[in-house]
Design a protein that fits this description.
- This protein is α/β, with parallel strands linked by helices.
- It folds into 2 domains: about 5-125, Rhodanese-like domain (Oxidized Rhodanese, domain 1, 3-Layer(aba) Sandwich); about 155-270, Oxidized Rhodanese, domain 1 (3-Layer(aba) Sandwich).
- About 30% of the residues lie in helices and about 10% in strands.
- The protein contains 10 helices and 10 strands.
- The chain has helices at about 10-15, 35-40, 70-80, 95-105, 120-125, 155-165, 175-180, 220-230, 245-255, 265-270, and strands at about 5, 20-25, 50, 85-90, 110-115, 155, 170, 200, 235-240, 260-265.
- It has a 5-stranded parallel beta sheet with strand order 1-5-4-2-3.
- Strand 4 (about 85-90), helix 4 (about 95-105) and strand 5 form a beta-alpha-beta unit.
- Helix 4 crosses helix 9.
- The termini are far apart.
- About 40% of the residues are buried.
């Protein structure tokens, strides 16, 4: 079995397996003005549970989508029926699955896969759809693997140091227009632009939007990184708007066997609001 992805055929054949927990983690930036919980009720993979990204974020932080503590994360995962032996399959309607995959791995649960092509491909291929609220599931005890100090996470000071001394490449997964500042950030009150010295590699290049919306192969991903000027043999700090699409780059680097990678959790939502941190446009 693939260590990172499952295909729709496989998932359809295993939907009723007791150890499989399918999670819809769809989410959108505020300016999209979409209700993903309502969209879930309008249609989802049979038996899927809905993960509200806000429920596994630090609500006390002034920055959106920041990591919660391990106890908060596992309390919500357990509510969805995830136990120590569960094989979690995450999917969404766009670009969030890699973030949730990363969070499960970060908090100690390696038995997690991403549905290749997600909800778009599932629907395109005419697979069964369920509507309404998620089916009731038994809450389980959180597995005894939760980490209290996540590794693989960068803070703003780590990013600043990398920009100054070149110890790591800072790679920004936002679209070119948000990176340059031609478009707003997507978050109210946060201007566009980027960190001086950051490399722009839009996340969408790793998920070609024509056809099935499947992940680029590791070979193709390596070529995309190289074309963007990213040396995958050197450390990488991935960033984006709020720490979501940056995980797409980390996911692909993991598939390439690269471990010296971190995600800047605050990303541009933090950096772009702080007057003490440098930023450029263009």
């Amino acid at each position: 079995m693939d260590e990172f992805l499952v295909e729709p055929d496989w998932l359809l054949a295993h939907l009723n397996a007791p150890e499989i927990v399918v999670i819809d983690c769809s989410w959108n930036i505020p300016e999209a003005n979409r209700d993903t919980a309502a969209e879930f009720r309008a249609g989802h993979i049979p038996g899927a549970r809905f993960l509200d990204l806000d429920a596994v974020s630090d609500r006390a932080s002034p920055y959106v989508n920041m990591l919660p503590d391990a106890q908060t994360f596992w309390r919500e995962a357990a509510r969805l029926g995830v136990g120590a032996e569960s094989l979690v399959v995450v999917y969404d309607s766009g670009y969030v699955s890699a973030r949730v995959w990363w969070m499960f791995r970060l908090f100690g649960h390696a038995r997690v896969r991403v549905l290749n092509g997600g909800w778009r491909r599932w629907r395109q291929e005419g697979r069964p759809v369920e509507t309404g609220e998620p089916r009731a599931v038994a809450c389980v005890a959180p597995p005894p693997v939760a980490r209290t100090t996540p590794v693989g996470v960068a803070a703003w000071a780590d990013v600043m140091a990398a920009l100054r001394d070149g110890g790591a490449q800072v790679v920004d997964a936002r679209t070119r227009e948000r990176f340059t500042g031609e478009m707003p950030s997507g978050y109210p009150g946060v201007d566009g632009g980027h960190m001086p010295g950051a490399i722009n590699l839009p996340w969408s290049r790793m998920l070609p939007q024509s056809g099935a919306f499947t992940f680029a192969t590791p070979e193709a991903a390596a070529a995309i990184f190289a074309e963007a000027g990213v040396d995958i043999d050197r450390p990488v700090i991935a960033t984006c708007g709020s720490g979501i699409t940056a995980a797409v780059l980390l996911f692909q680097l993991a598939r390439l066997g690269r471990g010296a990678v971190r995600l800047y959790d605050g990303s541009w939502h933090e950096w772009g609001q702080r007057a003490d941190l440098p930023r450029v446009k263009g």
